[in-house]
Amino acid sequence: MLRAVFFDIDDTLFSTTEFSQHAREKAVEAMIRNGLQISREEALRELRGVVEEFGSNDDRHFNRLLDRLPRAATAEANRTLLVVAGVMAYHETKWKELHIIPASRRLLEDLVRTDLKLGIITSGLTNKQMEKILRLGLQKVVHPKHIFITDQLGIAKSNPKLYRLAARRTGVKPAEAMHVGDHPLNDVQTSKRAGFIATWHHGSGKYAWLKPDTPPDHIINNVEELRGILTGQYSVPLGA
Ligand SMILES: [Mg+2]
């Protein structure tokens, strides 16, 4: 019997990869408007390199971008002004665009009305992930005690312990829990190793090209597809 459903956030409940690309474009455009002398494409290419090399949680992306560009690009500009303009544009985009698409939200709201326990299992820095939870309004859908963030718990998503802990703290057995996530290894394979039912969100995120070695129990291309699986295969009473 299915008693709990856990969701990953990035590239599952929210198209993080698409969103951050767009936010970075806005940031670069703001920097150019404020005196950065380089083409938008060149700046974006270099910024992509920074993010790949230093990771998405590095907090000096725009400083590093300026360090890497030819000197002439910033010769006539104030570097701090450029960095702050970039950061502001990034955050403004975040305010505007960080939301769950209506069809997914409807499914979550319908799930709240069932007996299923709902949770979040997400990888990343605690405050950053918590901010996403609040901006997406997920705290209205899941119990605060059912939010599991790798940084907060000190266990990564590559470790099945994380999933077992989430099941235990939610009061269900791993076999009664489903995890929905996009990462073939950290979401699919590891949750399966923990004994969960694994649903692979095979969308357009940055891991779309990777394939899990262990086949997932279910594959979806968007969160709404879960509705049919839950009603058809687990008799969860949801509307069509
Ligand atoms: Mg993810």
Helix and strand arrangement:
Elements: E1 4-7, H1 16-33, H2 40-54, H3 61-68, H4 79-97, H5 102-112, E2 117-122, H6 126-136, E3 147-149, H7 150-153, H8 160-170, E4 177-181, H9 184-193, E5 197-201, E6 218-220, H10 226-234
Parallel strand pairs: 1-2, 1-4, 2-3, 4-5, 5-6
The structure holds magnesium ion.
Magnesium ion binds at residues 8, 10-12, 181-183.
Descriptive account of the structure:
The structure is a single chain. The chain is of the alpha/beta class and 240 residues long. The protein is built from 10 helices and 6 strands. It has helices at 16-33, 40-54, 61-68, 79-97, 102-112, 126-136, 150-153, 160-170, 184-193, 226-234; strands at 4-7, 117-122, 147-149, 177-181, 197-201, 218-220. Helix 9 (184-193) links the parallel strand 4 (177-181) and strand 5 (197-201). Helix 2 packs across helix 3. It is elongated and about 65 Å long. The model has no long low-confidence stretch (mean pLDDT 94). Bound molecules: magnesium ion. Magnesium ion (MG) is lined by residues 8, 10-12, 181-183.
